[in-house]
């Protein structure tokens, strides 16, 4: 049986890729969402937090260059796991109350985000019927705004409830 003939597998793959896209997107939107509290805690201007997003996406561009070879070497599932691990490591680094830790964490999380797309595309092409591929790629990609929405709904409330000294709990 060809893997693209199994709709059950397609649903599992779409769910896994959606969840991965969501988690990775959450790692790139947490700090901008709590920028005022973060800037207050670090003693910097809130506008400087915007540069964190630029560094993260710059590292994602570099990560994208390595995504295909990473997927070929490790496989799509392992590359997705590596992506999540790098994003988690980046976030853990970013909770250290230092501008340099945020820079380093942003670069690590951004690289993790960059390697993800080739892995998720590889899985969806392999496990989804061609006739449904457009819809399933769209569902997978909707994990990005969904992850941003989850962060936007939770991180500011957590940062405000815990105060400027404990903004790290919203990450």
Low-confidence stretches: none
Please count the beta strands (DSSP E, at least 2 residues each). 0
Structure classification:
mainly alpha
CATH domain topology: Growth Hormone, Chain: A
Beta-sheet strand percentage? under 5%
How do the SSEs run, as a string of H and E?
HHHHHHHH
Described by strand count, sense and barrel closure, the largest sheet is: none
Judging by the overall fold, what is the CATH architecture? Up-down Bundle
Total number of helical segments? Answer: 8
Distance between the termini: 44 Å
User: Which term fits the overall shape?
Assistant: globular
The CATH class is Mainly Alpha
Provide the number of structural domains: 1
Q: Kindly report the average pLDDT value.
A: 87
The assembly state of the depicted protein chains is single chain
The residue fraction in helices comes out at over 70%
The radius of gyration computed from the alpha-carbon positions, rounded to a whole number of angstroms, is 17 Å
* CATH superfamily heading: MFS general substrate transporter like domains
Give an overview in words.
- The protein is an all-alpha fold.
- The protein has one domain: MFS general substrate transporter like domains (Growth Hormone, Chain: A).
- It has eight helices and no strands.
- The protein has helices at 7-33, 35-42, 49-74, 76-94, 99-114, 116-127, 133-141, 143-162.
- The mean pLDDT is 87.
């Amino acid at each position: 049986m060809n893997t693209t003939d199994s709709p059950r597998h397609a649903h599992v793959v779409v769910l896994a890729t959606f969840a991965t896209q969501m988690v990775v997107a959450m790692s790139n939107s947490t700090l901008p969402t709590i920028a005022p509290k973060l800037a207050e805690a670090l003693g910097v201007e809130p506008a400087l937090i915007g540069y964190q997003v630029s560094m993260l996406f710059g590292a994602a561009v570099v990560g994208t260059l390595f995504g295909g070879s990473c997927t070929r070497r490790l496989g799509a599932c392992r590359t997705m796991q590596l992506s999540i691990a790098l994003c988690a490591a980046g976030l853990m680094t970013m909770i250290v109350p230092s501008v340099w830790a945020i820079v380093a964490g942003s670069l690590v999380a951004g690289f993790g985000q960059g390697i993800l797309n080739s892995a998720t595309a590889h899985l969806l092409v392999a496990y989804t019927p061609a006739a449904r591929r457009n819809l399933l790629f769209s569902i997978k990609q909707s994990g990005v705004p969904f992850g941003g929405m989850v962060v936007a709904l939770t991180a500011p409330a957590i940062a405000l409830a815990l105060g400027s000294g404990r903004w790290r709990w919203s990450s």
